[in-house]
Amino acid sequence: MKRFISAMLLSMALIPAPQPSNAQNQTSKTSNTMKADPQTLEEVKAYAIGEWTSISVELRPTEDRTGSGNIQPTYLRRDFQFLSEDRFIGTITLFADNYGQAPLMEFEFRGALNWGDAHPIAKGAWNIDYVLNEGFAVTPLHEQAAAMLNSALPESMTPFETGKKKDILKQAFPMFHIAEGQIVSDYDLIYFKNGMLFMGAKHVDGTPFDKAENRPHQLQIPLERKS
Hints:
By secondary structure, this protein is an alpha+beta fold. Helix content is about 15%, strand content about 35%. The protein has one domain (about 1-225). The chain has helices at about 1-10, 20-35, 40-50, 145-150, and strands at about 50-55, 60-65, 70-85, 85-95, 105-120, 125-140, 165, 185-195, 195-200, 225. Strands 1, 2, 3, 4, 5, 6, 7, 8, 9 and 10 form a ten-stranded antiparallel sheet that branches. A hairpin with a 7-residue loop joins strand 4 (about 85-95) and strand 5. Helix 1 (about 1-10) packs across helix 4. The chain is globular. Residues about 1-5, about 10-20 and about 25-35 have low confidence and may be disordered.
């Protein structure tokens, strides 16, 4: 169990505020009904606004960051809120099982969206970067997850506690390969089809999207609109 949790903690898959007002929700829903397959960048930006969530627990490959070369399975759910002014909140919950009955840890990412050029995988797909410059919070949901985080805790950081969120934005965290003052970014893609949101499929070797050259090439299991 400890080895499995360790693999979960070492994964950096990324990733992606307050709810929009009722008026914003109504406007968003109206435009979304009219344009379920947005194509231009402006259409995609407008259609994205709202909350999107995983259909079910997802499986993705994750590299073993100890350098062993082994690929580990990661079970997770995603919840992303796309806000106005090119901002986002992303929540990723990791599990120890296929069906999401044994939660391990939750990550909350807050920051800016940098929109790029068209992505070649499909017409209407665009490059997008998630810049974690507003918040990077970690919540251990299991006592062994908290113990694992605390086993490599920087001296300047207070211990993690099960069920309590801790923001590590710009703080050194060697377990996640984050240096002091570093702003983490995730280089991804975004695409909408038939009212579903597709992000980039994870590389089969578990390589994260932590560099522009590691941007994905295919589409991942989609998210459905929650609001």
